[in-house]
Structures
1.
Amino acid sequence: MGTTQLESVPEPKYWHLRTVLSEALDSEFAVGQVLPNERDLAARFGVARATLRQALEQLELEGRLQRRRGVGTTVAPPRVGVAVGSAELGWPGAPGDAWQAEESDRATAPAAVAELLGIAKDEPVHIVRRTRVTGGQPVAADLVHIPASSVPDLTAIDAPSGPARARAVLRELRRMEFEGQDRSVELGSARADDARALDRLPGAPVLVVTTRYFGGGGTAAVSLAIYRADTCRLTFGADGVEIHHTAERQAS
C-alpha cells in the first residue's frame, strides 16, 4: 500500500516536544508544582521559545498544565468528572440541579441564540447567570436565555435583582410543561467575563455546551454553559452527545 500525503508529513517539532514534556511531567513534577520559566525550559530542551509555547499550549488544552494568575504554569491535577444534566433533570433550577443562580436581567440575545429560540434578533429575553462549583473550585459558568413567552407571569414577582430574581425566573420557567432537550459541545476560548468567572486567563480553552430546552411546542430556553477544559471531563446521559462538523472541517 502506498504512502498517503498525510503520512509523509513529518511530525511537527512542537508535537514531539509535547510528548517529551508530558513524560517529564510524569517523572519529574508533582501536581501543583510550578514549571521553570520559558527561557530555562527552551534552553533545556534545545528549542525555540515559540516551539515551546506551542507545546505548552497543547498540554494546557489536554488538561496537563494550568496557567495561574500571579503564579505561572503549574502541573494540573487530574480532570474532575462533571455530569452534564440528562433529560431527567428537566428545566434549569429543577430539583437536583447543580447550578447556583446568581443574577437575571433583560437584554437582547446573541444572534445565534435568537435563531435557536426562534425569536427576532432585537427581541429582549431574560438572561439568568449561573455558576457551578465542584470541590470548592469554579468549573463552569452559564447563561440561560429565556424569552418572555416562556415566563408570562413573571411581572407579578417582586424580586428586582440578584439571586432571588434569577431563581424566580427559573421557577416560572418550570411552570411550563417540559418536553425534552438537546445538546451540542464544541471547543472554545474563554472571553474576559468567562475567564473572571472561572478564575482563568482570557483565551484559556473551554468547552461550550449549548442546550436547547423544549416546551410549549417550541424552544422555551437556551443555555450556553462554559466549562473549564483544563480541569473538566464531561460525562453525559444516555441521550449521548450531538456531534457537528463545519463545512471547512469536512473539506479537510
2.
Amino acid sequence: MQDKNFDTLAHKFAKNIYGTPKGDIRAAVVWRDLQLALTELGDKPLRVLDAGGGFGFFSQKLAALGHEVILCDISAEMLSLAQAQIDSAERDLNIRLVHSPIQALTLAEYGQFDLILCHAVAEWLTDARTTLSQLIELLKPSGLFSLMFYNKEAMRFHSLVSGNFDYVAAEFKIKKKVGLTPTHPLFIDDVRGWFDDWNMELVSQSGVRVIHDYLKHCQPQGFDYAKLLEMELIYSQREPYISLGRYVHFIGRG
C-alpha cells in the first residue's frame, strides 16, 4: 500500500485547502465538531496523533490549547511547512514531527492517544479500511477518532449537476487526474459500517461544504461569504445535507 505523497504539491495544497473560502468552511466545521467532542474528555492535557496531517493546521490549534501532539506525514515538504509555522507561532507548541507513512506507526513506539485525527487521508489509500483499523489500535479506551473523508456520492452528485455525465458513466475514470482530486473516494454507508465493526460509537457526524460546491456561478448582488459560512455551520449536521457534503467528518468514541 502506498500513500499519496504531496511533496511536489505542498505549497499548492496549503494554499488551495486552507487559503480559500472553502478552506474556511472546512476549518470551521471540523473545529466546531472537535471542540464539542473534546468536552467529553475533560479539562486536561491530551495526547493527540495527527495522522497524515500535512502542515498541521489542527495540530497547531490543539497544541495552542496545551495538548501534546504528534504530527505524522509521509511528505517531508509538508512537515517543513509545519516546522516553519511552529517556529513562528506566538507561543511554544508541543508538537513532535514524524516523517513516516501512517501505516508504520506502532503502539510500541508511540503509545496510545486520547484523540486521533485522520483528515483527508483515507481517500488517497488503496485500502483505507485496513490502514484505519491499524490506526485506531493506538487509541486509548474511550478515546476519540476524528475521520474526515472525501464523499463519493457527493462527488457523483456534483458531477451530475455540472452536466459531466460521461465522467459519471465512466465511474470517474479519466486519462489525466487533477493533482488534488482524490483517487479513492468513499461511500458514507461503508465508513459507517467500519465504525460499527470497530465497536465505535459515532458521537458526531457533519457534512463539510454542503452548500459551497453547489452554488450557482452567478451570485446575487451583495452575496456575503460570512453568511455562507453561517449557513454551512447550520446545515452541516442535518440530513439530507450531511450526505451532500463534499467531505464528511465523523468522530467516533472507542
